[in-house]
Amino acid sequence: MTNNTRAGSDQTPTVKRMLLGEPIASDEGAEQLLPKRRALPIFASDALSSVAYAPQELVMILLTGGLALLAFTPLIATAVVVLLVVVVLSYRQLIRAYPSGGGDYEVARTNLGEVPGVVVAAALLVDYVLTVAVSVASGVDNIISALPQLAPWRIELAIAFVVIIVVVNLRGVREASFAFAIPTYVFVASVAVMIVTGLVRTALGDAPVASSAQYAVHAPELAQVAVILLILRAFSSGCSALTGVEAVANGVPAFRRPKVRNAQATLALMGSIAVFLFAGLTALALVSGVHYAEDPCELAGFDCTTPQPSLIAQVAAATFGSGSTAFFIIQAATACVLLLAANTAFNGFPLLGAVLARDGYAPKSLNTRGDRLVFSNGMLILGGAAIVVLLISRAQLTTLVQLYIIGVFVSFTLGQIGMVRHWRRRLRSEALSARERRSVRVGLTINSLGASLTVAVLIVVTITKFTHGAYLVFIAIPVLAFLMIGVRRYYRDVEHELVIDGATRFGASGDIALVLVSRMQKPVLKALDYAIAAHHRETRAVHVAVDQDDADRLAAQWREMGLEVPLVVLDSPYRAYADPLIRYIDALREENGPSVVTVYLPQYIVGHWWEVVLHNRRARRLASRLMLVHGVAVTLVPWLLDSSELVYGRRSRPLPGQDRAGRSDAARG
């Protein structure tokens, strides 16, 4: 019969190809691996960009208690830097021990058990979603600082940027690295120049002065306990500078060989840059007298009806001048890198999702690579979840930061504890040489220190952020972990159900084809062609008679055309289609034993969405019912209407052995 289905990738919609590019073959995967210079902006953009808002959050929390509390800033910043160095060193050990890309999840599951493993995975997944939301919200904040007139469009801008980042990442890791490398390096270079310039000016006696330095702060009287809690809360907000460190450990498979060495080098470079930028920005904020309040109306003399410039914007304006080219370069680079920091999550989330899918804790679709050899399903899920969070929070950075870093410190803590157990197990091995034993002891020492510090910070972060919204994360993580365990049990039960055992029987005693006929039309002849060409032992045409006149007319046409395939008419006094057909199939199987019954259903393929409404889609509904019947296979035989041929740009031609009407010799009898 004519009207063959279209085939080949040449018919793929051009819009998708324009956005994502041409498909990449599986054997070209090695070309997508990243060298260190391009891996840094891909995996470290989150950690590097955190320094743009971590000092701001630190200063903002301290100013809640008044200007006097700013004296604690150097001490808190030093504690954050020490913690960052320890965590970076700890993750270098983790990369060496577990280079497969599972990161903290693999460490916790291997060394602590299933429940800690899925808790870590849930915490990381939640943190990746919040990373995208926080990064985009922070980037939009910096755009609004330079262009205040865009403030009413905050939410729309945030959502638009998420969509853009999703599309860029769907194009593949290699192309994303090209797109994100320049903004990341411009940000690092421009902020480094600003820090050096500001510190040199300070050393020469011309310290920069922020525009907010003149503002006083309205602060209540605080008891000693309240001051301590405020300092701890400021420390926990400053610890947001550590987010993103774990992404390199999760992305080791994306590096070029030698993977472990390149990943460790990238992590060390990222940590060094982050320490320098965080310490330098905090120092310049203190030198220039930046005053940044959670509620701008707390600043005496500030017009709180206008957007408050971000800390980095104030430092840049104080160092180079608010209208200078350097100021706008820094603001543009900061906004770009904050937006692109979300890219770290778009690499970590899909990779972790693929690992979870391979282990059975997530849907198998998360382990499927798209046209561009990326885990596109994970990227789409992450983008959708981030948009929902941005809508709920109205893209407000201060709100989102309170939810942030809880998940990452849960994974830090369990990952480091798992590494401690890993090294202890290695020490008990008698096969270690003296050199290997020294290396293991070094790893044990580093990870023990990391575990101690991250446990302490997790306690502090939990206490100080719990009532500010972090309790939502403590609800989300157990719920997600519970769902993952449920998915694992489901896959286990399905596997047990499908495994071949002693009771399994193979082989059918019969092979019958049933072609469903409604009216005498071309799609019916095509379905008959398919059934005859398959050489079933027996082929029958079946008509469900809901109207006796139509049934008589069809039988007459059948005889006139001389079709040798017998026509069976099933009465349906209650106008049902599936039930009479199922009863007929049951009777066939009783008569013929365990026969395989193949039902051929003609189906229209339309080219426009509105045509779907105009057709009853009976074939799909029948197929859904027949799939529940044992021993039945369903074959949908497509017939492309003219509208679909025009839309897809392909006209069908009669095949050899067919006449102009499309009937084969077999169908004509």
TrEMBL record:
Domain of life where this protein originates: Bacteria
InterPro entries named among the record's database cross-references: AA/rel_permease1, APC_K+_Transporter
Pfam families named in the record: AA_permease_2 (PF13520)
Record membrane topology: Multi-pass membrane protein
Sorted UniProt keywords: Membrane, Transmembrane, Transmembrane helix
Location of this chain's protein in the cell: Membrane
Record carries keyword Transmembrane helix: yes
TM region positions: 58-91, 118-139, 151-170, 182-204, 224-245, 266-286, 328-352, 373-395, 401-421, 442-463, 469-487, 622-641
Protein known as: Amino acid transporter
Organism: Microbacterium nanhaiense
